[in-house]
Amino acid sequence: MEDIIISLNNSNIIASMFWAIIVLIIGLFLSKKLGSVTQNLLENIRLNQATKNLGWHSFFEKYRAKLNASKFFGLIIQIYVLLITLMVSSEILNLTILSEFFLKVVDYYPNILISSIIFIIAVFVAEFSKKIVYASSDLKYSNTPGVFIGAATWILAVLAILYQLKIVPELIITLFIGVTAALALTFGIAFGLGGQDLVKNFLKKIEKKIK
Predict the structure, then answer these.
(1) Of the four, 29, 34, 52, 198, which is 20 to 30 A from 207 by CA?
(2) pTM of the entire structure?
């Protein structure tokens, strides 16, 4: 009887190891595939070019480092899928402590993904504001709207990312509200002090450039 029980236990262990290996192989394949798809998608929407236009590549080159934003975010997706795979494999093998550890990491990981999306949006908004400056380079004080939009974008983006990563969230949400109110007030004052004419001329100039 004891031999039968031992034999069944050994069979269960072998079966668990088999399925854990299968899940791990599939997970490794999917993680690499999804990471590659994400990288290609970001390259197609010219994320690397946007970061280059903002001068980030030059900054990293000073420290003998190379910036590839598309590859970096592809790696984030790849790690996320891999973590899920390790969590499932640990569960199959009844490695409870290890499984719970991966579960906690996986639960937190969406914060990193959302922060990455916020960062990507901020890059494109800042890059767009820079293009506005170039499109109207012969206007007096034409760099003001672009600088304002770019600075406001990065301030709000950094606060949003810190909040999403749960880094002192109470303080961050207070700062976020304060900064948003200050930017709205500044924008309102600019219009009240004759900014409407400047913006009107600014938009006309852009329209002519587009046509």
Answers:
(1) 52
(2) 0.70
Q: Return the residue matching tokens 């093998």.
A: 93
**∠ at Cα 137 (196, 144), nearest 5°?**
45
Tokens representing 163 are 């909040």
Helix (H, G, I), strand (E, B), or coil: what is residue 54? Answer: coil
The residue type found at 152 is: A
Alpha-carbon gap, residue 93 to 170, rounded angstroms? 40
CB 94 within 8 A of CB 118: no
Cα 127 to Cα 157: distance, rounded to the nearest angstrom: 14
Q: Which long-range contacts link 203-211 to residues 24+ away (Cβ below 8 Å)?
A: 205/135, 205/136, 205/138, 205/139, 206/132, 206/135, 206/136, 209/135, 209/136
Angstrom distance (rounded) from CA 30 to CA 82: 8
